[in-house]
Specification:
Radius of gyration: 26 Å
Number of helices: 15
Distance between the termini: 58 Å
Shape: globular
Strand content: 5-15%
Helix content: 40-55%
Strand order of the largest sheet: 15-16-17-18
């Protein structure tokens, strides 16, 4: 169906797309409807929906893992809590005797000091005759870069103009607002010289990043740069104008993927019917209701009403289920509201939301400490954690599932039959959790299926060689392994070349080839 309204800005009297015929676009936004290489049309349009505002909606049926949109970063800058880093390439640099740019900021060297990414703050500081102080001045870099980009690109300014910055809500946070005014807005106005940046301009940058900013990963490196691990990079963030229009859901139908040069690719995580709203998850999916809902209220100023948040039992996942210390029953939220207490289904004992929240924090601190421990065997530490929580947390509680996720990745040297069986059990628990939460073709599924297949193969072959299982049972087992490998590859082969996930897809492809050869010759074994 053709339309005469621009798919993005809703200006009337526009021409329908000559390729797909599903949307129309104005001259200004025509290039935003097609992929970066021009080979296909993005399958969405913008609609206004009551109580939500502007949302992206599928204009046709979308198959899982299709590209929904590609986006490039704006306002790319360090976070205020990052260690010392180069403002051009974002690599961490030593605190002792670093190269100092003319503007005062520590950098990798002369080449990075002359880089385009670093230019806006460099020119501003040099023109003002002020020396950058390094980390204390990192908060100023973001608004400087974002305002500079908007000055150079009016179209970008228009696109960002439709995004929410929650100014009124942030002004109501009097303490935070005054701190920003004192330590960021006023110093930056003095530094900006003849730029004529207003307090409102700078506060809007802060609001846009708080509401829409995204943390970045090492795939930000451009193709000609040497690969750098995440641990060797500082913490950075950026805005993605197209991605910002995607709505939130705690059970999203789209998947955010980091690409080279800090670009983003959004793919469908599920089959999406025409007319359905396109969603990503703004917060962490593998957390409980208390922290997930609070994060959305505190940072995005809305109470989530997605399908998952309206489910008191979180799709029966037991993500929020504690074990009653009085009768051993299941302690679950009384309702789905932000103020709900927890109640035992057996003895009806009530635990306050605050008590549950405090206990979650204490337990999470124990779990986080395992990740920070580099000296001890993490597998044993995670096993000890799971054992210690048996009388307190349901086996499906989100903290137990986080521990199992970490355990799955830590189980790299499983050799004995007991270890391999345990790894299978953990992988199956993770996959069952992903199925229960209806998360679709996400990267964790691909990794879990791969980790499931490797020990499955070893155990199957061992049992067949020992005569424990028949030839037909061996074939059936290999058929299951084949299907799981194919699903793993499907989830991960779309990842960026050079990433760990892409590497796992390549390994899975190699193993799949060997399994298929084994199936062909099994009758001769």
């Amino acid at each position: 169906m053709t339309t005469k309204v621009c798919f993005l800005c809703e200006i009337e009297d526009c021409k329908a797309c000559s390729s797909c015929g599903l949307v129309a676009s104005c001259t200004q936004h025509k290039n935003l409807h097609t992929s970066k290489d021009g080979s296909f049309c993005y399958p969405w349009t913008v609609q206004k929906r009551e109580g939500v505002g502007r949302v992206l909606v599928a204009v046709r049926d979308i198959e899982h893992l299709e590209v929904i949109l590609e986006d490039e970063p704006v306002g790319l800058s360090p976070t205020q809590d990052t260690p010392q880093m180069c403002l051009q390439c974002f690599k961490l640099i030593p605190d002792v005797n670093p190269f100092i740019c003319l503007c005062g900021f520590p950098m990798c060297g002369e080449a990075c000091a002359a880089g385009e990414r670093h230019r806006p703050e460099h020119e501003l500081y040099v023109a003002a005759g002020v020396q950058g102080r390094g980390i204390p001045d990192y908060p100023k870099v973001m608004p400087i870069r974002l305002l500079d980009q908007m000055e150079d690109n009016p179209t970008l300014k228009d696109r960002l103009g439709i995004l929410m910055d929650h100014r009124e809500e942030r002004m109501a946070e009097t303490n935070s607002w005054e701190i920003t005014e004192t330590h960021l807005v006023k110093p930056l106005k003095l530094l900006s010289g003849d730029k004529q940046w207003t307090s409102e301009d700078i506060q809007r940058c802060v609001g846009l990043f708080r509401t829409n900013g995204l943390a970045l990963q090492a795939t930000g490196l451009s193709p000609d740069q040497e690969w750098v691990d995440d641990d060797d990079l500082g913490n950075a963030r950026a805005l993605y104008p197209a991605m910002c229009a995607l709505s939130h859901s705690c059970v999203p139908n789209c998947r955010v993927m980091h690409s080279l040069n800090y670009k983003l690719v959004i793919r469908s995580a599920k089959d999406i019917p025409a007319g359905e709203e396109l969603t990503i998850c703004y917060t962490k999916m593998f957390t409980g209701a208390i922290s997930r809902k609070a994060d959305l209220v505190n940072n995005w100023f809305f109470e989530c009403q997605c399908q998952r948040c309206r489910s008191r039992l979180d799709f029966d996942s037991n993500f929020d289920c504690w074990i009653c210390q009085e009768c051993g029953g299941s302690v679950l939220p009384q309702n789905e509201s932000l103020s709900s207490d927890w109640q035992c289904g057996g003895c009806c004992n009530v635990l306050s939301r605050m008590k549950i929240k405090d206990q979650e924090i204490l337990t999470k601190n124990i779990l986080d400490h395992i990740q920070e421990n580099k000296e001890m065997d993490s597998v044993q530490l995670y096993e000890d954690f799971l054992e210690s929580q048996k009388s307190t947390l349901h086996s499906g509680h989100f903290l137990n599932m986080q521990a199992k996720l970490n355990l799955m990745f830590a189980f790299t040297n499983a050799v004995t039959e007991t270890e391999l069986e345990r790894k299978l059990e953990v992988c199956r628990d993770v996959i069952d959790m992903l199925d229960t939460l209806k998360l679709g073709y996400i990267e964790v599924r691909g990794l879990a299926l791969y980790d499931l297949c490797v020990p499955s193969l070893v155990l199957l072959k061992g049992k067949f060689d020992a005569g424990i299982i028949s030839r037909e049972q061996f074939k059936d087992g290999l058929d299951t392994v084949t299907k799981n490998l194919e699903s793993s590859i499907e989830c991960l082969e779309v990842e960026e070349k050079g990433t760990y996930r892409k590497l796992i897809a390549e390994r899975a492809t190699h193993i799949l080839h060997n399994v298929k050869e084994l199936v062909l010759f099994i009758d001769f074994l």
